[in-house]
Amino acid sequence: MTARQRMVQVYDRTMNGRQQRRFYEDSGFYNFGYWDPRTDSARQACETLVDKLSEKIPGDAERILDVACGLGASTRRLATRFAPGIITAINISEVQLALARQRAPGSTFSFMDATALQFPEASFDAVICVEAAFHFDTRDAFFREALRVLKPGGWLVLSDILLPRFMGPLAAPLQLPRANFVGDIASYRKRLEDIGFETLEVRDATDVCLGEFRRHLANWPAAEHRRGHLSFRSSIPRSIACHLIAWYFGMTCKTYLLASARKPALVV
Q1: Distance CA 18, CA 14 (A)
Q2: Which of 11, 207, 229, 266 is the 20 to 30 A CA-CA neighbour of 32?
């Protein structure tokens, strides 16, 4: 089994697990999300994250590509602002795509690698990717493909994670290509520039995304107990598990960033 197949297998299993569905209110999300002061649930945080990213997408966009769409929650959220029919979503898991098609009817779903997009040049007004580019082999290959399929003046918008260069055995479950271990935001920005993007914004959102997610996850079993959804006895092992997962993400995720980059417009 290849590293990619192992990674897909892990996500197929965990994204649709019973506890994950409960934590995300069966929304299909599986992201850290964006936690503003009004946020009180993981589902709401993930919806806000998609909303934040899509702010850069022009309202008159005619075609949008949702890369690594997971279980279709990001696609469905995009469809609250844009017509479902203009959204194309791709993934490398047939299991996830089958569920995504049910969750976001009206949009188009295809099995496709983000680093080898099967679309002509200048096909899309926007490309969006939520918390997935660090998995691609490689992230730079995805950036080049995104630039190619964007129309002149089109936008790439994404949330992404910078990882420590030396993670040892902690990195094994994530199946991460070594080339994706970018040191800092300045290096990340330079990669986008070197590939050909302009009008860049790359900002650190670690506290409001990763930090608040970890805090909420660690406190979630106790909150479920207070709401009467978990017995005290059941909440103890789940609290231990959630604290360990929160610790793991704190160790393996260095910086959470939000990025937007524009393909240069044609000069008339």
Answers
A1: 9
A2: 229
Q: Which CATH number is 194's domain given?
A: 3.40.50.150
Residue 101 lies in a domain: yes
Q: Give the whole-angstrom CA distance, residue 150 versus residue 147.
A: 5
Domain count, the chain: 1
Q: What global pTM score does this model have?
A: 0.94
Task: Report yes or no: 231 and 225 within 8 Å, Cβ to Cβ.
Answer: yes
Lookup: tokens for 5: 């197949």
Residue 219 backbone dihedrals phi, psi, to 5 degrees: -90, -10
Instruction: Please give the pLDDT value at position 252.
Output: 85
Q: Which two tokens stand for residue 83?
A: 């017509």
The DSSP secondary structure of 139-192, one letter per residue, reads HHHHHHHHHHHEEEEEEEEEEEEE--S--GGGGGGG---GGG----HHHHHHHH
For residue 193, the enclosing domain spans 3-205+254-262
Euclidean distance between CA atoms 257 and 196, whole angstroms: 20
- Long-range Cβ contact pairs of 14-19 (< 8 A, separation 24 or more): 15/70, 15/71, 15/96, 16/71, 16/95, 16/99, 19/238
What is the reported pLDDT for 183?
Answer: 78
